[in-house]
Amino acid sequence: MRDFNEQTITDAVISQFKAEDPRLQQILTSLVKHLHDFIRDVEPTEEEWFKGIQYLTDVGHMCDENRQEFVLLSDTLGVSILVDAINHRADAGMTETTVLGPFHTPHAKPMTHGAQIASAEELAKGTPTVVRGQVTDPDGKPIAGAKVDVWQASSEGLYDVQMGHGEADLRGIFETDADGKFWFRSIKPVAYPIPFDGPVGKMLVATGRHPYRPAHIHYMISAPGYETLITHVFVSGDEYLDSDAVFAVKDSLVADFVAVEDAEAAKQFGYSAPFYEVEFNFGLKPTA
Ligand code: BEZ
Ligand code: FE
């Protein structure tokens, strides 16, 4: 075990792995193979290699209980959506999945149908919207009692956890009725930048990329006997649909937010015209 050269070093390292767990053995073997191939391809200078290590160190230092810069790095390099695609191959009748993102919290409150998920302050700043949905199985049969967890950013592009006031806002949990349906009131989501004041932001700037995500509402939908669906509904016409900073847009998840000018209809929801309406149906995948 000595005198390794640029070619023989890879097998030498791999031959040292004797993990009891065959999956760990497979993962580390592949990691070393690809990492060494990457180094042979790029041929970094020692300065460049140290810069890379320093970058990952900075990513780690940016992480705390409220900020996960590694997830952001995984998202912006397209790794999160690749892992998602491999693990959630959608069939007919099932809604496509997309990234979870860092802003889901366990603090959302259960709400009744028609509830307003925006605080009075956020509602006043935003564009009033009515959101409806139905949850079904792949054959279109309604799923009653499904848990629908929703969250979205404010009209200023911030999630409640980024506002620092400690209150749940623009999020809620609904249960589908006997027809698999739910509805709630909110504000129309807007495009917003992912947090770009850290190493990930530096990477975006250095590579000529913007940090924006197209406007969307997040959904996490669960029901016994079905896989939990993590997805978004995007706003059609958004300028960032084709350049999402985290590559999470799928055509099937884009919905029309329709402007309603009718003052009487608006009054029914405690709104004044115009307000927006959107409807989206979610197909869940039965567990194997
Ligand atoms: C989000 O949509 O909340 C999100 C997703 C990935 C990275 C940052 C934010
Ligand atoms: Fe989001």
Q: Can you give a write-up of this model?
A:
With 288 residues, this protein is α+β, with helices and mostly antiparallel strands. It folds into 2 domains: 1-43, no CATH class; 81-283, Sandwich (Protocatechuate 3,4-Dioxygenase, subunit A). The chain is 30% helix and 20% strand. The protein contains 9 helices and 11 strands. The protein has helices at residues 8-16, 22-42, 46-61, 69-76, 79-87, 120-125, 160-163, 199-206, 263-268; strands at residues 128-136, 147-151, 171-175, 181-187, 192-193, 212-213, 216-222, 229-235, 254-255, 258-260, 275-283. The strands form 3 sheets. The protein has a 5-stranded mixed sheet, with no helix packed on it. Strands 4-1-11-10 form a 4-stranded mixed sheet. A two-stranded antiparallel ribbon has the order 5-6. A hairpin with a 6-residue loop joins strand 7 and strand 8. Helix 1 packs antiparallel against helix 2. It is elongated and about 80 Å long. The termini are far apart. The model has no long low-confidence stretch (mean pLDDT 96).
